[in-house]
Amino acid sequence: MNTPLIKTCLSSSIERYVELKRALGREYCAEYRVLQRLNTFLADLEAVDLTWREFEKWSQVQSHLTSRTRRRRMQIVRNFCLYRRRSERSCFVPDSNLFPAPSQPVQPHIFSDAQILQLLKAAARLPVGPRSPLRPEVFRLAIVLLYCTGMRRGELVRLTLADYDPQKRTLLIRESKFHRSRYVPLAWDVIDELNAYLATRRQRGLPVLADSPLLWNCHGQGRPYTGAGLWQGLHALFQVADVRKADGMVPRVHDFRFTFAVQTLLRWYRSGIDVQAKLPLLSRYMGHVSVESTEYYLPWIPELALAASNQFCRHYGAFVQPLSTGGRAS
Q1: What is the pTM of this model?
Q2: Is it the case that residue 101 has pLDDT exceeding 50?
């Protein structure tokens, strides 16, 4: 548990609920902070229970936030109330129909090969400084790993040199989402990039100890890049390289993960591989608990539709006969 909760009518239930979620493999940090703020709010009101009236007052405090954030926080409270109702049948549960309308999901951007090349060229031109002597090399490697492995941003910044095994050609992703670890096999091109990056570190007399962060900088005597720091650097690269989505906005870092999944499927389709049989392997590689989670990263774009159609045609085209246009139906 994080900061202890103030004793209120809900504090004990919140502690049990969060303990259950974490026992099931969830970190539940952001959700805990929402419930913690709700608990503090109730303490300030000296409320004896969470009712519709208290929930409405708490919701009004969130009015400065976006509708998407408000809806998510209200849903967190509702899920907690549903848990509470298991043992307290008369407890209040918010009506989700009264929550702010859900916003349209963000359309993922699939990077083209040309855009990746633009980003790599922009990374090579990045200025170095006393606190970031490896800035060009670090961001080149970050782009290569995100694009070629589809790993999450948080997984990338947590990597250490000990996690890279050049003999087995793998990266070890430790204790990621749902506390799952996995080995990620690497292509030879990625191995070459990693080895060149480490050779540069050695040549410049920079740390190459096993516990050194892979994405290294001088700030804090060799601390790793943070997730926010990596995002800021890549966001700036998108702008410098003029890599944009169809709507003119810059992509998200998470779009590398979508791109990896889509490009993997395209390669399989074009090679005539049984995609349905391979999907569990892609799911495992990406660190998902099920194929359903992987399907989220596979938007139905024209390239995928064409590849799937061509594969269907190769296997079953002979059985599909065009409708006759000469005669009339009887």
Answers
A1: 0.73
A2: yes
